[in-house]
Description:
Blueprint: H1 2-5, E1 10-16, H2 26-34, E2 37-48, E3 51-61, E4 68-69, E5 72-73, E6 101-103, E7 112-113, H3 115-122, E8 137-141, H4 143-147, E9 154-156, H5 163-167, H6 170-184, H7 190-194, H8 204-210, E10 216-220, E11 229-231, E12 236-237, E13 241-244, H9 249-255, H10 258-267, E14 270-271, E15 276-277, H11 307-327, E16 333-336, E17 346-349, H12 352-359, H13 363-369, H14 372-389, H15 397-414
Parallel strand pairs: 2-4, 8-12
Antiparallel strand pairs: 1-3, 2-3, 4-5, 6-13, 7-9, 8-9, 10-11, 10-13, 14-15, 16-17
Amino acid sequence: MQLKAGAANRVGLVSTNSIRNGASRRVLERLIEVAPIFEAWSDEPWVVDGAAVRVSLVCCGREKQNLRLNGNSVSVINADLTALASDLTLAGSLHENTGISFQGFTKGGPFEIDGLTARQWLLEPVNPNGRGNADVLRPIKSGGDLVKRREEAWVVDFSGQTQDAASLYQSPFEQIAKVVKPFRALNKRPIYRDRWWIFAEARPGLRKATATLNRCIVTPKVSRHRVFLWLHPRVAPDNLVIAIARDDDTTFGVLHSRFHERWSLVRGAFVGAGNDPTYTPTSTFETFPFPAGLTPDRPAASYATDPRAIRIASAAQTLNRLRENWLNPSDLVKRVPEVVPGFPDRILPVNAAAAEVLKKRTLTSLYNQRPTWLANAHAELDAAVAAAYGWPEDIGEEDALERLLKLNLERSKGS
């Protein structure tokens, strides 16, 4: 490197904005060991020959300089191209958070079917193995499905079964043999090609972690707003959904606090034309320090009588109830049991006029509007979570990030 050899005093680079995150950030980390960043633009639109991307522009130098980030004077520029006093790139993984957050299933082929077909198969007579098709059929939700209203989709899930065992579910298997097998035959990976009736990534860790839960927490991997929802255990999370294997309202509440949201924004990346923030199990969830005694490695029963947990859970329940009432008002929807037991009820509009209203009632729309009642519900939740940490309830975000990083470093070094 010219800088390291002393042959140059300054260097500039243009890269995609992903250089701020994950493994890509190591380039900047190594660079600033030799020459600190003195000026940078963290996230700029860049159009060349019709190709539109977002880039980071970075200037490093050996001499002392006045620092500027995104056109503003700052006192520090970190490797993730933030000016935070607390450098969250230093945060490490926490043992208490491992094995709890997972990416959803990667199908690797056309395993999806429509609701009409799924219900026809659910009502078919039992198969030669004496089992119904409900064993291998599940509704499925993508990241977009969580925040928008889309046509329902189901999926055939033979994961964990041999080909012979799967073939005993006659209608689903014949469909997968017809459409997935030729698709997978073109795959270069032998395991995908040979095990064509199985999802490409079936996430056994996720299945094991959620097997005994009544529900689990999910969030879109990429989303304009960082929202968390409850998912019924029979609903499959798709690959752009992050699933968190907890079913208690206290964990839900901590995750939906402004402190975790801010942490996730700094620790995550930004992708797509909308420059939407991402959420990952490793860099985001596994580094976030929960309040002492409320960490996700503990069973919820261990803090069931803790006043801090009770207050957070109550605020989280209120937030979720109000949101659900807005999304699916009782005068606009009817709840219809599924054709066989064990699946969540269907939520259907009561008439065509209601259907038109409901099209506009999505989580994205709600958080774009952020009405007073929603802001108030979040404020109460934030206050409860701040109190659980032992912080002032009106603590500023920069102060909170500094304290969170301190907690992370104390715990990660002790892991």
